[in-house]
Design goal:
Blueprint lengths: L5 E7 L5 H14 L4 E6 L9 E3 L5 E3 L1 E3 L3 H10 L6 E4 L8 H11 L3 E7 L11 H7 L2 E5 L1 E2 L6 E2 L1 E4 L22 E4 L11 H11 L1
Length: 207
């Protein structure tokens, strides 16, 4: 009878060290002579198409996967019986269909380690991450340093071109780095929840 695997979730805001922690655990698994497979979402090609790259410059080769049905099928095909550990970065970009696949890996005795944002720039639960946190064997929530005051940060602040906070009604997904995001503490985090037309009207009255 096959022993069950485990699901580990590494989460937090941007710049909190999620990818570094994922790579650290995968390296340790390799030191223990485990066969490790690293996966990334194809949408995140900021620094590399075929590697996961941390903000401090460390990198690790990874297989890019899309969110479509063909991508999920490819994920299942990649995880053959010889794989002991699966590491997935930017798990928030993966669709609901990935949940049952990850569960099946765990049932097969595989250790699954995922890293991703637990909240989006609006401060709300992001994608499948909250569900995975609920069913995980372990959850590690990391924190960054607030770029405004230097306190512990747990929010991802999106900024628009003039450095002001993004509006609440903007698209959830915008792949980027330091050029459009900052880590913020609860006190320094800002979100403009005004509808677009109202926000423009207020701006016009102020000019």
């Amino acid at each position: 009878m096959t022993s069950k695997g485990r699901l580990e979730v590494i989460c937090g805001s941007m710049f909190s060290g999620k990818t570094e922690e994922l790579m650290r655990r995968l390296r340790r698994a390799e030191y223990a002579k485990k066969k490790v497979l690293t996966i990334k979402h194809k949408i995140d090609n900021r620094k590399s198409y075929s590697c996961i790259v941390s903000h401090d410059g460390d990198s690790r080769e990874a297989c890019p996967i899309t969110s479509c049905e063909e991508g999920l099928d490819a994920l299942m095909d990649l995880v053959d019986p010889s794989v002991d550990v699966v590491g997935i970065d930017e798990i928030q970009f993966f669709p609901d269909g990935a949940i049952s696949i990850l569960k099946s890996f765990v049932d097969r005795g595989i250790r699954v380690i995922v890293a991703g944002l637990d909240t989006d720039f609006r401060g709300e639960p992001f994608g499948i991450v909250p569900y995975l946190m609920a069913i995980a064997d372990s959850v590690t929530k990391l924190h960054a340093i607030c770029m405004v005051c230097g306190e512990e940060a747990n929010h991802t602040q999106r900024l628009v071109q003039d450095g002001t906070p993004a509006r609440y009604d903007e698209s959830t997904i915008l792949v980027g780095g330091e050029e459009c995001y900052e880590a913020r503490c609860r006190e320094c985090y800002r979100i403009d929840k005004q509808p677009l037309q109202e926000s423009q009207a207020v701006s016009g009255n102020c000019c």
